[in-house]
Amino acid sequence: MAPSARTLFAHPLAALLLLLTPATQAAEVLVAVAANFTDATRALATAFEQQSGHRVRASFASTGTLYAQIAHGAPYEVFLAADQRRPQLAEQQGWTVGGSRFTYARGKLVLWSAEPGRADRGERYLATLTDGHLAIANPLTAPYGLAAQQALTRLQLWSALQERLVRGDSIAQTFQFVATGNAEAGLVAQSQVQNWSGPSGSLWPIPTELYQPIVQQAVLLRRGQDNPAARAWLAFLRSEPARAIIRRHGYDAEPEPEPEPEPEPEHGWRP
Question: What is the CATH number of domain 109-205?
Answer without folding.
Answer: 3.40.190.10
